[in-house]
Please model this.
Amino acid sequence: MRALVQRVLKAKVEVDGQVVGQCGHGLLVLLGVGHDDTAQTAERMWRKISRLRIFCDDAGKTNLSLADVHGEVLVVSQFTLYADCRKGNRPSFTDAAQPSTASELYELFCSLVEGDLGHVDHGVFGADMQVSLVNDGPFTVWLEI
Model:
């Protein structure tokens, strides 16, 4: 499982011109699922993200987690995180999970976030989505589990 985690002031995702998910101060999580991923992988990924100390304390040090700042989360599925561009100019996505498996693990990940935070907004799996955000910092972290 791969995640591109961005600390944001706000973010939203639209499908067909309609906002389907948004968040305020917190994290935008672009989530890719690989063919070897399991429920345990999703749990480990959320545990890692939820505990990342990437928010600033009063001294300006990145010592605070999402829970410490009462942050929000927007999760967007993004199989293109599994793009392999080592050969040629057209990306290969053979390492991405099949849509049925990826959808199941994406939904599980979202439910884990909601279980901890009480609420999570997310995109629509497999849809053509437009994501906009105001990156805070900017602060972006790449995770692979």
Notes: The chain has two helices and eight strands. The CA atoms of residues 50 and 66 lie 6 Å apart. The two ends are 5 Å apart (CA to CA).
